[in-house]
Amino acid sequence: MKTSFIDKKQSEDRISCLGDNKLNHIAIIMDGNGRWAQKRGMPRVAGHKEGLTTVVKVVKSAVKCKVKYLTLYTFSTENWKRPKSEIDFILKLPMEFLNRYLPELIANNVRIETIGDVAYLPVYTRKALQYATKRTRNNDGLQLNFALNYGSRHEILLAMKEMYLDINHAKLSLDNVDEQLFSQYLNTAGMPEPDLLIRTGGEKRLSNFLLWQLAYTEFWFTDVLWPDFSEEEFMRALDEYQQRKRRFGGI
Ligand code: IPE
Ligand code: IPE
Ligand code: MG
């Protein structure tokens, strides 16, 4: 039997994610897995594994709140600096996650996508993601983006090169290049910019995540380590976001 993320009782509860600020897209830097494990005398990878349960909780909450896009920073272009054993472990997790949760994601109308230079990922990671993407292509609920081998500077450089080629091949005129058009060369083409960025794990930096797209995003930081991040904490972030006055340079 298919299990659903949302039971009837939950869906009837009033949820605090509502407010005047639009909330189409949430981006999350899921940080603190290694420290979570080390605090418990466990190997760092145990934290990555535990972090999967938080992913499920957050996806559930995002579905409940009718968020249209959720982008999760899963593996950065800088994370290749880590020991090979840790990299291998992290890059197996998308496959494990999808093997276990894809039916639930489908039951909840979630569409899976990836952003980042996925060509460099191991073949089993790419296959699992390709299968999930294809299988969920027609779902029109939450779009869940996994940012894998993602780095914003790399993304911007690739976009620039591709644009240069289009100009060179006369597919595009330099006069027509504006912010809107440039955005369409990024991995996030067609998606709204994030309204809210959440970073767990205590650090207050972007670590090369969505530098262009976050220009007017509201930021919310917490010391809570990703495996401990709860639905209550997520709702707190959304609630605080709804208190923000977004001016976009106006008055
Ligand atoms: C975030 O947790 C997950 C990835 C970067 C893949 P970390 O592994 O960075 O955990 P800390 O920051 O070392 O605690
Ligand atoms: C950011 O976390 C990358 C991901 C969560 C995938 P890091 O742990 O790699 O960031 P730094 O090294 O603290 O900046
Ligand atoms: Mg970290």
UniProtKB/TrEMBL annotation:
Mg(2+) binds at D31, E218. Its cofactor is Mg(2+). Keywords: Magnesium, Metal-binding, Transferase. GO terms for cellular component: cytosol. Its EC number is 2.5.1.-. It comes from the Bacteria. Gene3D superfamilies: Decaprenyl diphosphate synthase-like (3.40.1180.10). GO terms for molecular function: ditrans,polycis-undecaprenyl-diphosphate synthase [(2E,6E)-farnesyl-diphosphate specific] activity; magnesium ion binding; manganese ion binding. GO terms for biological process: polyprenol biosynthetic process. It is an enzyme of class 2 (transferase). Binds 2 magnesium ions per subunit. Substrate binds at residues 32-36, 44, 48, 76-78, 80, 82, 199, 205-207. The active site is at D31, N79. Catalyzes the condensation of isopentenyl diphosphate (IPP) with allylic pyrophosphates generating different type of terpenoids. NCBIfam families: PRK14830.1 (NF011405), uppS (TIGR00055). HAMAP family: ISPT. Homodimer. Belongs to the UPP synthase family. This is Isoprenyl transferase. It comes from Sporolactobacillus terrae.
